[in-house]
Design goal:
It is built from 16 helices and 18 strands. By secondary structure, the protein is of the alpha/beta class. The protein folds into three domains: 52 residues; 180 residues, Endonuclease Chain A (Endonuclease, Chain A), CATH 3.30.870.10; 165 residues, Endonuclease Chain A (Endonuclease, Chain A). The strands form three sheets. It has a nine-stranded mixed sheet, with helices on both faces. A hairpin with a 3-residue loop joins strand 15 and strand 16. Helix 2 packs antiparallel against helix 3, helix 5 runs antiparallel to helix 10 and helix 10 packs parallel to helix 11. The chain is globular and about 70 Å long.
Amino acid sequence: MTLDTSLLWFIPPVHIVMAVLASGHALLNKTDSRAAFGWIALCIILPLAGPVLYLMFGINRVNASARRHYVTKLQKDSTDTVEEPPGTAFRPLSMVGEQVVKKGLTSCDDVQILHNGEALFPAMLDAIAGARHHVLLYTYIFDRDETGMRFVEALAAARERGLEVKVIVDGMGEWNGLWRIGPVLRRRGIPFARFNPITLIPPALNLNMRSHRKMLIVDNRYAFTGGSNIGDRHLAARDDNPHRVLDIHFRLQGRIVDELEWAFRRDWHYCKGNRSRLPPFHHSNPNRLEAPVWSRLVLDGPNKSLDRLNDLMLGVISAAQKRVWIMTPYFLPTLDLIGALMAAHLRGVDVQILLPALNNIKPAHWASRNILGQVLEGDIQVAYQPGPFVHAKLLLVDDQYSLIGSANMDPRSLRLNYELGVELFSRDINQQLCEYFSARWAVASPVTRAEIESRSLPEHLRDSIAWLFSPYL
């Protein structure tokens, strides 16, 4: 028997074994029946190639890897929260987050809404200049430009005053520009850590499990969080800024500051590779029962916190009675979120979705257009904001609920990234954000079914192909 003949006899049983194993794995582990059926069919139809493709792309290793690698033992001294603050009527909306994160609400003494870098950066730099004890900065992108260097100088000055200063930048987000900020921070003696750094030796090239969280903690007084990164691009008033971005950020005071500081120190502990148990983190701010705003921190990530924000959004949209207004730069919702939006509309809830007409990630925009047809079939209102690119993220429900933070409404944020959201329960804050939303809606252009259906065949194919890769955009 020749070698070629031996291979002919050898390939079929190997293919059968591989196909059975891969198909069995898909059958037991896929939660979507269509995805399971597709992979099983591919494994059976394509000799050898189907199981190999499934091994490479069909197995979700992100969750298992995150659970294995994200280990931190920083504990809080208590989980003192309030389920129903006296004199409030936040339920049933407040019950959703309570079930998702297994804790009640924390008080927030003040919320300042900061639009774009013109308002945000001076407020952050003033807070750093006035710090007396510690400054903790956490961002996805820290550009090495004029704005970035102003922050470096402010952080270095705080360090020279003897303050505790720590900076976390995502390991891939730092590569957003030509020159990285890390070497500058180290030269200035600023303690610095990369979240899941990208390295060749040892090899660590994982593009997933990124930290998209943004926060600045100053003493026990201020916490800044929202969607803005550090860089000139957020100076939206400059007409000569070719990559300017509109965004919204928040300065918080009260017990919620402690919650965000705990989240920062937890990630710092992880970034430094410390597996030992640290002393408990102690809160500095009380839960004031007379607080004007109540809040809750929701941490999300591919580790044990997987799907928290998706479940939270699904729950509050399903509980909405009057209004669901969404502003997001990337709109690639899961099927259950689309179903919740359609169900809300059928209940008579005012559902509006506000997206950017100009997007910095073209494939994400194309994939979104492939989804919009399904959304528009349910008579949900969708509009495009004119340029420049709008990076703001808001979920406004009824008259008292606002969800802010770093997460977009797409699979990367809701399944692959480490994100944070802050629920704000306040009629006044909700009204201010609704006014901002309405102002943006007034200058936006409605998206119609006719527009989506009139796409040329090349555009339709382009959008459909981008949609196939939407879990990774």
